[in-house]
Structure formats: C-alpha cells, structure tokens
Amino acid sequence: MSRPGFLKAGLRDLPIDPESGESKSPMHKSVYRRFEAGSVLLYDRMAAYRPGNMRVHVDFKHHFGGSAAQLPQCVADDIEQKWENAGYVGRLLPTYNIEEVVLSGGFRVALGPPKRAA
Hints:
Layout: H1 29-36, E1 39-42, E2 45-48, H2 79-85, E3 99-102, E4 108-111
Antiparallel strand pairs: 1-2, 3-4
C-alpha cells in the first residue's frame, strides 16, 4: 500500500549552475559529518555515505574522485546554534504563564503571556 505525500522516494536532483555544472546548494552540517564519518548506517547496512546526487556538489565532489578537497563553501546557517544563542534550547515555542479562564458556556481556555528567557 503506498502512502500519499509530497516527498517522493529516491534522491532529489540538486539545482546545478549551467555554466559550472556544479551545485552550490546549502547543506546542513550533519551532511558534512556523514561524508567524513567513514561507514554510516544506510537503512540496513553500514557503508560510506555517498548519495549519487551529491556527485555534482562543489563541497562533496572530491569524495567521488572528481577533485582535491577544499574548504566547504555551502554550509547552511547553524540554526541549532542560533536557537541556543536565543535561549530556546530544547523547545520550539516559548513557554507560557498559564492561567485557566472559564468562558460562558463552561468552556475552559488557558491564557497567559510568554515567559521571559532568564
């Protein structure tokens, strides 16, 4: 039975610059770690992380024998560090000072302003 969804199974094509033939798509830091890790878990086996679509990426093509390694150019913003710096570690939404209010008809609602980060 197939499940409907917006993500299709398989590798996704990276956008490629028509002049250079390379992709400079931003990649999460975990992708860089997986490439450098040696063997990683790939579904049901351990092997080097080498998805074929990354062969054209400027930061990973050297893993496929295309060139010498260079400093990464396309590391995405470190969103986890930004969240930590903002005081939101471990939660996506601010916590609230909760006060229960009973509305007409017996409906109960929790209201309150967000707590300030310490």
